[in-house]
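agent: user wants the structure for Lipoprotein from Hyalangium rubrum. delegating to structure tool.
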Amino acid sequence: MAMAGKLANLRIFSHVAIPCEGPVPTPASVTVEISDPDNLPVGHQSFLNTSPKASAIVEFTPTKAGRHHILAAFEPVGGIHQLELQVVGDRSAKATRLEYGKTCNALERTCLGAWVCDSNVTREGAVLKSFPNGRLAVAGDVVWVVEPLQIQRYVDTGVALELTATLAHFHGAAEFLLASEEELVVLHSAVLQRISFSGAGLSSTGPTGWEKRESPFTQDGPPGLLIRSGDRLGVVTRFTPSPGTPPVNQVCPYRLEGGHFVRTSEPCQQFSGTIVGFEPQGLWVGDPRFVFIEGEFVGLKWMEWTATGLVEQASLSLNSDLELIDLPVRQRLSVAPVLSHKFALGNGSLIAVATYAPERHTILLEHLGGEVLEPLVSTSLLWGVPVTGSPATGISVRLRPPRD
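agent: tool returned. relaying tokens verbatim.
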């Protein structure tokens, strides 16, 4: 990876066969071409270095995020080499930096500045409300709380957390939540239900059963995920067809009818790969390097939930220099993939967040600043313990800016 707006240094080695006798041949020249994501030429400097091994030293300053294609041709020996370089967009100047006084596995923030850290709602270091038996979700300035026997809707006023409505239920704890300001979809262990707010109170239009399978995650996570497009809801799980075979992901479609979600007649859609992130509109899926080994990936895909099912919209090739960071998912409403890279020429490490750019139908990488250990990323936030800090001193948070 390289950073847009900053000098990139590359070293491309030639391929020269070593003869049984005589001197080792060396190339006399090298020609380098670089094209940007729009296939336009990129200005650069390059020269041939012959010690200790023949290579091309290439320097250029990319201006646009995305995949850059690099071609190096050595003459008369050394061969033609082609490689792809992912350029990361530097959005740190637009990512507002904030501090929070403790570590959180799940972190959200209302528009008016209240923090939801796991089961606590705080402002300026003071706890406004605590819900040790609840699962929480934020939508705008609304905070939803789902406890085993009760659902509550609060509004952040900028000063306090105001309770606007409650609803009793008997479906147990929430496994996953999908929230807007006026609506909440709750996945319980055996049913899913839709809760709506009318202004006078909360109402549920009835639970719908769902088939609980294996968790869609390899690490600790909920037994199912919810993704949505308009009136279509998808419940994501996975299953193992038979002993000794790799697990298969599936998404089963539901449709909003008569105020509640009902299972459609369509079969569940199966798809391969490992779920490494999720957002309300779709899934981030990694392509494993080996079928039976988790954690090593050769590619990343964004799969969007649409009116026709789960559709792959874009993919990103992961070479040996790019690595997906394994992120915890428990209690999270969304997880965005984070990639790390170690520069070959000592320029340090770079952490990038994957985002889908629909206008370009591509996956872009963005750097948000706030260098932290083991970064956690949601649709709206990046947070973690600062590299120079410790869990006792709290975390650094960056607000993810909207796409330009």
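agent: one observation worth passing along. The chain has three domains: 2-88, 91-106+213-404, 107-209.
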